[in-house]
């Protein structure tokens, strides 16, 4: 789930969400944006032989995802991103919970899926065929960075070019 949020961030502004020169640097960048690691994670850090002697940054006031993506993504997209970027993995949305998030509202109309009755859609109906049948207009392949940022999952899907 964490990786999905990282991809969303990079799609939104063209920059890696958590750039880092190495594992430790990346962990520092993560904490500066979303807050300190959990006590359990800190214990693992302190006992890990690779990180011996390396101090975590003091992150009393992280930058926050809200500040980082203000005006760049919809409130629903930002809420979804925050729900899957919880520092404690036990607090993150599961894949099933994520699909029920309001950010994905309306996708069942495009793909014919029903999360409450998973057997309602035959396995043979692929997402690609569903996309072709639903008349999703694709953007030109060149210079997608100049296109407006999608505000919800439906717009995000429409921004991808589907090949016939």
Protein model, in words:
- With 164 residues, the chain is mainly alpha-helical.
- The protein has two domains: 1-93, Transferase(Phosphotransferase), domain 1 (Orthogonal Bundle), CATH 1.10.510.10; 105-164, no CATH class.
- Helix content is 43%, strand content 0%.
- It is built from nine helices and no strands.
- The longest helix is centred in the first third of the chain and has 12 residues, at 2-13.
- The protein is elongated, with a radius of gyration of 19 Å.
- The model is unreliable at 119-145 (pLDDT under 50).
What's a quick, concise take on this entry?
With 164 residues, the chain is mainly α. It has helices spanning 2-13, 23-34, 39-47, 65-69, 75-84, 95-99, 107-111, 127-133, 153-158. It has two domains: 1-93, Transferase(Phosphotransferase) domain 1 (Transferase(Phosphotransferase), domain 1, Orthogonal Bundle), CATH 1.10.510; 105-164, no CATH class.
């Amino acid at each position: 789930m964490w990786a999905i949020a990282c991809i969303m961030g990079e799609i939104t502004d063209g920059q890696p969400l958590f750039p880092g020169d190495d594992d430790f640097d990346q962990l520092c960048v993560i904490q500066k944006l979303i807050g300190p690691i959990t006590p359990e994670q800190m214990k693992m850090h302190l006992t890990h032989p690779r990180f011996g002697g390396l101090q975590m940054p003091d992150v009393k006031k992280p930058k926050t995802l809200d500040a980082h993506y203000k005006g760049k993504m919809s409130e629903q997209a930002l809420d979804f991103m925050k729900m899957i970027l919880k520092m404690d993995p036990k607090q993150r949305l599961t894949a099933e919970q994520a699909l029920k998030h309001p950010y994905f509202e309306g996708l069942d109309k495009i793909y014919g899926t029903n999360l409450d009755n998973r057997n309602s859609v035959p396995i043979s109906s692929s997402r690609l065929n569903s996309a072709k049948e639903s008349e999703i207009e694709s953007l030109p392949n060149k210079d997608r960075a100049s296109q407006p940022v999608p505000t919800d999952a439906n717009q995000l899907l429409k921004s991808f070019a589907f090949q016939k």
